[in-house]
Design a protein that fits this description.
8-stranded mixed beta sheet, 7-stranded mixed beta sheet, single chain, 270 residues, 17 strands
Length: 270
Amino acid sequence: MKLEVLGVGNAFTAIHNNTSFLITGQKRILVDGPQGLFRILRQRGLGPGDIDAVIVTHIHGDHVSGLETLLLWKRGIQGVRTPLFTSRQAYKELEEKFFPSFAVGFEPDLMGTQTRPFDSYVEFFELEEDALNPILLGPSVEIRHNWHPTPTLGLKVHMGKFSVGISGDTCYRPALLKQLHQRGILSASTYEKLSGDWLWSADVIYHEADKSRTGPHTSEYDLLQLPESVRRRIRLVHVPDDVQDWQLEPAQEGEQVIVEEDSLKLELPD
């Protein structure tokens, strides 16, 4: 089984693909569907018919802009619903805010329009917190709920005896998280997952990063305060184009985390 980095850019990137991943085993599972998705897949020698399921972290456009075309292609060309894995909160956002833009289509005779339900395009599988959620015949996934303006997931992908952490969009700022917990905004469980070892225990960690120490995303400064044993497992994603002087290692598009029985290998592109 392997996990491949499809994109490393943030929402405003002009030179990278938006941050997304592909998990390949017996099935191919896409993690988020950014804009230009079909082009991104073609870069890897794949097409929409090769995707068996999608995990969605949240509704923001740089994570789901390409999901619309994938769902339309799957239903209209392949004639199937797409298995969609996310939390119930994120699914509600997708159904009520994302889907209406393409819910209305022509009737078969093109003489009028009809509105289709979201579940005519997707088969929803809820990712539950504090559970090991199986994804088809592939990995199992744990989730946490991030501190972000819309319901957003962080993921821990279990592949055999190893795990890969994906932070998702999140404002990891220990002092802020502590204040949110003290004020009752974050539960003890959520606070622990956002500030403790939940993500840091993964064998490889893909974490979003920015240089700003006051913005809505994670600052590299705060990641640099982590123990060296954690820092060396972090690969930066969701990064801005105009930063070159990262102290932590940025991920590369096309790199792969490969799990074979009792070994894990990080393979970088040529």
